[in-house]
Amino acid sequence: MVYRRAETDDIPTLLEFRKQQLVDEGQPPKGNIDHEITKFFEKSLAEGSMIQYLSIKDGTIIATGGVHFYAYPPSFMNPTGKIAYIACMYTLPEYRGKGIATAIMHILMDEASLMGYDVIRLHASKLGRPVYQKLGFEGTPGFMTKR
Question: Rounded to an integer, what distance in angstroms lies between the CA atom of residue 19 and that of residue 16?
């Protein structure tokens, strides 16, 4: 098993994994979002606002996960205001339950720490929740969304 940072040549795979992740989380495919996802990965990888890692076995990408970096106004609980957000975690079904997502999470958390990000957030799907809980992530009340 090899773990490496994603590059622009990997975007077609990142695109397909992202769409499958959304479907697995219960979002029915609605319209074509290929262009938007591709542009997101192109921009984020180029400007360094995101680091995406891949797990590769026998030359095939089998899992991926990313960490996005952004800033909030500083607070007493986060004096720097720096937030790392884990997203785009996906493992092919036949490789789930083998510790691959956990390994990627450790890499992403280490990257965030090295860059001075003490607060790491994520949205946990039902499938991912046990992995994140084992790594010390806890639920936070008060998260609201307006669409």
Answer: 5
**pLDDT tens per residue across span 59-69:** 999 999 999 99
Based on its alpha-carbon atoms, the radius of gyration of the chain, rounded to whole angstroms, reads 15
Give 71-74 contacts, CB < 8 A, sequence gap 24+: none
Residue 20 buriedness (CB in 10 A; 0-12 / 13-18 / 19+): middle
Closest listed residue to residue 41, CA positions, set 13, 82, 61, 63: 13
For residue 81 the two structure tokens come to 């205001």
pTM of this structure = 0.91
Strand partners, 5: 53
